[in-house]
Amino acid sequence: MQFPFSIRDDTDFDVTGFGTNAVDFLISVPAYPDFSKKVELTDYVQAAGGEIATTMVGLQRLGLKALYVGRFGGDAAGDFGMKSLIEEGVDIRFSEKIQGASTQIAFIIIDTRNGERTVIWQRDHRLAFTSEDVPMSAAGCSKVLHMSPHDTAACRTLAEAARRSGTIVSLDIDNVFDGLDELLPHIDILITSAEFPSKLFGIRDAKEALTEMHSRYGARVVGTTLGESGSLLLCEGSFIETSGFAVPGGCKDTTGAGDSFRVGLIYGLLTGETVEESARMANAVAALKCRAVGARTALPNKTELRDLMTGK
User: Lesser CB count within 10 Å: N end or C end of the chain?
Assistant: First the structure.
């Protein structure tokens, strides 16, 4: 099945990302501790992360041209985060540092038995965009606009402008935010975490929840990531169930696996793949990411992605 979109051929970039960036402090432990217990860590690293910034890095590594729009704090973490994008080749011309604000941080505890993680995060309110100060020049300069909805009013303003220019709008969402009902009708591709549909609708059956999501908000492609089990998409009335890939060498860290799924799906869309093959790509990128600790550390290049998908 082909994606139900026309893709622009008159843009400067393939993808624009609007949303979160972060600096992650990743702490590996032999087992997640019980309440009131102590555990000695086995390793500790600092790495760049954040849902949208990570997705832009993943697409850039696969050969697409990515633009990131976001705010960093006026601190050392902000310098670290901006440098991480520049070194990957991601364009940050519409990003800025906010003096006096702190860059978003996350402390991530990883259970080394299975790579599963717990995230403890904080975002400075001074990093938020409003519908008045969001850089509108970024709305229509790419084939796809990919966002996380932390600043919902700004997202809606960008999404409306992007769609008017013929840009496809994609949303990465895992939680309920104020103003979501006003934003979601302006989304073309809506991919959620496994837990989100029950948070939004109270519906636990995945197929029923995706059907309701499409019916209520109108996104042409809706879907949910299912961890190591793979993914479920609904497109043009058909459900597409895709199995996950085994992580080469075993799962070291699931941080950023959902962001990586979006990398593969958008990459498939923009390189002319079917929805089914794009879903396989999405699951493959997510599996490859889990080879190492950190959201971006093991994001694959095209050769690594092809080799996993062809069984080499």
Answer: C
Distance of CA 204 to the CA centre of its chain: 23
Dihedral angle computed from the Cα positions of residues 70, 73, 77 and 80, in that order, rounded to the nearest 10 degrees: 50
pTM: 0.96
Domain locations in the chain? 13-21+51-101+127-310
Helices (H), the chain: 51-61, 76-88, 152-164, 180-183, 196-201, 206-217, 257-270, 275-289, 302-310
Question: DSSP characters for 91-141?
Answer: B-TT-EEETTPPPPEEEEEEETTT--EEEEEE--GGG---TTTS-GGGTTS
Name 142's bridge partners: 13
Q: Which of 12, 274, 18, 5 is nearest to 166 (CA)?
A: 5
Q: Quick one: DSSP state of residue 243?
A: P
**Closest among 290, 185, 192, 206 to 245, alpha carbons compared:** 290
The angle that helices 257-270 and 51-61 make with each other, rounded to 10 degrees, is 50
248 by Cβ neighbours in 10 Å (0-12 / 13-18 / 19+) ranks as middle
At 91, list the tokens: 């364009």
Do 30 and 42 contact (CB within 8 A), yes or no? yes
The encoded tokens of residue 8 equal 């622009």
The CA distances from residue 237 to 169, 203, 218, 220, 233, in Å, are 20, 19, 12, 9, 10
Unique residue bearing structure tokens 């309440």: 35
pLDDT digit string, tens, across residues 242-299: 999 999 999 999 999 999 999 999 999 999 999 999 999 999 999 999 999 999 999 9
